[in-house]
Write the structure tokens for this entry.
Amino acid sequence: MKHYFFALFGGAFVLAATAVTGACADPADPPVTASLRPAIVPQSQNQMRLSFAPVVRETAPAVVNVFTERHVVRREVDPFFSFFGGGIPRERVERSLGSGVIVRSNGVIVTNAHVVDGAEELKVILNDRREFEAKILARDKKADLAVLKIDTKGERLPVLKIDASNSLEVGDLVLAIGNPFGVGQTVTSGIVSGLGRTQVSDLANFIQTDAAVNPGNSGGALVDMDGQLVGINTAIFSRSGGSNGIGFAIPGDLVKHAVDSALANGKIIRPWIGARTEAVNAVIAEALKLDRPRGAIISEIYPGSPADKAGLKRRDVILSIDGSDIYDNSGLNYKLATFSPGHIARVQVWRGGKTRVFSVKVAKPAMIPARDERVLDGVNPFDGLRVVNMSPALAEELDFDPFVRGVVVIGRGRRGIASRFGFRGEDILLSVQGEEITSTR
């Protein structure tokens, strides 16, 4: 049986070769009048000598290598000590590599969150081989993006301009630039094979490309023929872990939002509207008299949320936002993630057999109810627990479901009764003897 898996590009050091390929027109094609298409069909042998070199010269200096180190302690079991149930702790250094893109001349770099995950030491190597220590400004594991900063001491570095226009079309030529397998900066070419791929992640609308991308390309640039950054290479679909002609990149508009948010807020803020949605299948579409399965149906609305204030209701089907069609949950989450808090979105919904339009002001996840941190005491199993109210804002911070109600354990005293019951940090207390817990009070 053949197995398929998604590979997030990490740091395997394996010798491999990749090739830069180009496309040219068939010389047997009949000539086209120059006045109609002067720059599309080659008119001579010289014109047929196509090259991506001009684009590469402009873009490659802004693509960097990202190296990480972390110390891992593992307990190696010796046959003698295993008899006593123990082992010998050994510390080793794990190294990994990836790529990144300079997006601000003062040394702001964007890469994938999984490239820098768990890094204790972080180093960036420029195209000219200079090395810099880097720090993480912000990261968003759900979007798999991280924003780094290096100290350039006032020097202005080459940058790539982020194209957030969503103007890519299937068939457009693109180049992937990165450091596959650690062999050094490599450029591969291909086309946009697909757009709006949402099956890969809950918060993505990936660009699919057949440009060869491999481990080490993660966080590298996907550029168009204008030399603009249209995506950050992130994942591949492969039988072997190497390039199989199916690569995925995070689109430029989400990358731009992550960078802007990190620089403005010190973290990447994903706004919300406070509506839980589900995919619309054929059965739901028929029941609601939709022409076909599309959109995202609202199953729950958080009280006091932007969706609630705007007048959205359960069973409304969100069809589009700001003119962009919504096909499923992931597409909706992605579109919302590209907005900044305060943006007023034009939301088209299907309700009662007709379309309606609502203006929804997207916002930061709400701190409702208030945090209200406190230590529980008394003769009960919770004695000694430090808890806070669950809220959409805290859920975002802890990567929990924002619709979960209750209180969250954030600490535990050593002497309280709770220490005997195995409570741990980030446990959620939902109910006691069948009675729902809604706050720390």
